[in-house]
Amino acid sequence: MENITTNARKALKLKEILQILKCEIIWAEDDMLEMLIDRAGAADLMSDILAFMRPNSLMLTGLINIQSVRTADIAEITAIVYVRGKKPSQDAIELAKEKRIPLFSSSYFMYDACGILYSNGIRGHN
Q1: Which domains are assigned to the chain?
Q2: How far is CA 37 from CA 11, 34, 67, 120, 125, in A?
Q3: Running DSSP on this structure, what letter comes out for residue 107?
Q4: pLDDT digits over 99-126, tens only?
Q5: Backbone angles phi, psi at 55, to 5 degrees
Q6: Helix, strand, coil % (nearest 5) of the chain?
């Protein structure tokens, strides 16, 4: 049996993550795409994001209302990827601009997006 821990953690630029997840940019400034990301977490329950995610992480979620951005702000999340092709509400986009939290949309399901990130060296919070 292959040891799945052999893939070392590595950091990727946000623009590289957007390519591998085939993301559409909802809102981001160009300089934000150069940020390095080395960890991610996924949840639709914002209480799980607050309880388990570390600052400077990438958040994957299917929750598209303003609470996703408010939660990301409180948890000091670097960027949000909305899965399953979902797009956030306009009030969520406006708050993200105000808080400078980049927003993206990927057509991948959450499980698949997490697997893709893991196979490219992005790890969770262990």
Answers
A1: 22-119 (3.40.1390.20)
A2: 5, 9, 22, 11, 12
A3: S
A4: 999 999 999 999 999 999 999 999 987 6
A5: -60, 155
A6: 40, 20, 40
